[in-house]
Design brief:
about 120 residues; mainly beta; about 45% strand
């Protein structure tokens, strides 16, 4: 099992009732970013080809996960398990979270030309 710090920025408890012969579904949708030890995985510079930013992770977790969500946005210790998709591609799947600390999103000062200082 792999452990990584993540920034959880959205959760939603879902309860889908059974219908059309299908079972119902209860759980928690969790959206997150890989955080790193000190937020280094969230930061991104614009590259010459225009690519920038961090893609979010999204997972549907068991209903008891809702009790582990203390604060959003928050830093959590995420437990990940390696799985293989139906196409044979290996992926990391978030299987558990534990609250670490609150997260605060703040604005950084920019230079007068409107561009960041690159830090």
């Amino acid at each position: 099992m792999n452990h990584m710090k993540i920034l959880v920025f959205f959760t939603s408890v879902l309860s889908i009732p059974p219908r059309d012969g299908r079972d119902g579904l209860d759980g928690v949708s969790v959206e997150y970013l890989f955080f790193g030890e000190n937020g280094e995985q969230v930061e991104s510079k614009v590259t010459p080809d225009g690519t920038c930013g961090t893609r979010r992770g999204k997972v549907f977790m068991p209903p008891e996960t809702a009790q582990k969500v203390s604060w959003v946005p928050g830093i959590y210790d995420g437990s990940f398990e390696m799985t293989v998709t139906s196409e044979g591609k290996p992926t990391l799947k978030l299987t558990d979270i534990d609250f670490v600390s609150k997260a605060a999103i703040t604005a950084q000062p920019v230079k007068e030309n409107g561009k960041g200082d690159g830090k």
